[in-house]
Amino acid sequence: MQIKGVITALVTPFKNGELNEEGLRQNIRHQIAAGVEGVLALGTTGETPTLSENEQKRVIDITVEEAKGKVLVMLGTGTNCTATTQKKTKEAMEAGADAALVVTPYYNCPTQNGIYAHFEAVSKIGFPICVYNIEKRCGRNIETNTLKRIAKLDSVIAVKEASGSVAQAADVLEQCTSDLSDFSVVSGDDGLTLPMMSLGAKGVISVLSNAFPSEIVKMVAAANAGDFTEARRIHFRLAPLFRTAFIESNPIPIKWVMEEIGLAGGDCRLPLLPFSVEGRQLMSDVLSNLNIEEKVGV
Length: 298
Fold this sequence. Notes:
TIM Barrel; 12 helices; two-stranded antiparallel ribbon; 298 residues; single chain; eight-stranded parallel beta barrel; alpha/beta
């Protein structure tokens, strides 16, 4: 299995404060119709820390029912407890997912050796793992030397590189893929997808594709085909959206955009607040200038 192309980090839509199951189904169908390679449920964008165990199970069941066999199904299973992460990863495997996204243990602030030991223990489940490196949410960066060790573990197949540093991404691509041809590096930042792909990344686990999957698919497909002229054209066209979609905590802006264009987003759960008036105005201006037409309502 190779992680590549566009994998959408799905929002968890709410309606009247409850999980909007039909909205989630419609969103997944919209993604598949747009040509994404996969969907990720229970990630950061899915507001997973606010979901009950029963809600998480329903999200898993719905995602597998709608997407299994059509696109890759990835589930976020990472926590700051190794034993819990092992349990959730095993449950993802048993539920019928194709891979797990495992984030760096957060809050505990383990050493680099502790980070390695965490992934080593989870890899023993025997289920494909995509490592998720995002220091700004976890308090720890996975240093490239540590990632090189992790990448050699059985079951570890990819990294979602969201350090925010093109320099680090370049180091990862140089040092972690030269001897491991089956190990994939994908962007975890929409705005850095094209720069990373120019260096050899295979795609993106995307937030923006919740609303505009066709546009992100076109950009990534062009880059993978070596047509960087077309990929740059799309990148620069979308650049204002890349910036504005993260002016407030993800997924606040993208959920608002989804509602504006007829997709199921709903509000966020506390402690995340609705998109501010100022943010809505900025985003409205961006959307008006972009004039993107996505086919919605699949």
